[in-house]
Amino acid sequence: NAGVTQTPKFQVLKTGQSMTLQCAQDMNHEYMSWYRQDPGMGLRLIHYSVGAGITDQGEVPNGYNVSRSTTEDFPLRLLSAAPSQTSVYFCASTGSYSYEQYFGPGTRLTVT
Amino acid sequence: GIQVEQSPPDLILQEGANSTLRCNFSDSVNNLQWFHQNPWGQLINLFYIPSGTKQNGRLSATTVATERYSLLYISSSQTTDSGVYFCAVDQNTGFQKLVFGTGTRLLVSP
User: What residue in A sits closest to B10 (Cα-Cα)?
Assistant: First the structure.
């Protein structure tokens, strides 16, 4: 099992550009989440999904879109990048019968 | 919303020493997890422990749900224990919308 994978590892964007952060898991987990981590802070939930076709907002959803067309994939879209979105982004997944969250390696995004 | 406070914010240890990290939360929870973020940024799940005590090797954790705190014990610390330790909680049943504390940064020197 590869677990939770994320691409790219690093990305630099200019203000106003759009991009998609990819996340995939091969553990057949129903639940997937996106978090951002800013310096000196814990993680904050952006969006989450409880299954294919079902998504909802977390604590800091503005400026981000998600979709879940398959169980395995949960991409995060930045619609129009802003410097405030400079952060490290983590994707996580959880099985239906387990409460433990498993995290991907993260994507470090810089918006100039 | 629920507040999660971790202490101490920073901790420096000599290799071989023991330590206790604390997590206080402001309301009852259905889910509490401890994570270790290594110096390369990878987050590893250590414990799912909404109540009671668990042990895994040199690490153990205790959550006293009625008093709204959890403790993570690290015994005989090693340099590989360095990193940031996060406590995260959730009040919901079903899908967990974890709320993270700001972490304890641990440095273990040889």
Answer: A40
Strand B99-100, strand A102-103: pairing: unpaired
Contact assessment for residue A107 and residue A11, using Cβ atoms and an 8 Å cutoff: yes
Cβ atoms of B7 and B22 within 8 Å: the answer is: yes
Can you tell me the distance from the alpha carbon of B80 to that of B110, in angstroms, rounded to the nearest whole number?
10
* Cβ-based contacts of A42 with chain B (< 8 Å): 4, 86, 88, 100-103
pLDDT of res. B51: 94
A82's tokens: 């802003």
The tokens for A70 are: 């398959």
A33-80: pLDDT as tens digits? 999 999 877 899 999 999 999 999 999 999 999 999 999 999 999 999
Which residues of chain A lie closer than 8 angstroms to B42, CB-CB?
103, 105-106
- Residues of A with CB below 8 A from B101's CB? 42
What is the spatial distance between Cα B103 and Cα B91, in angstroms, rounded to a whole number? 19
**What's the pLDDT band for B93 if we cut at 50, 70, 90?**
low
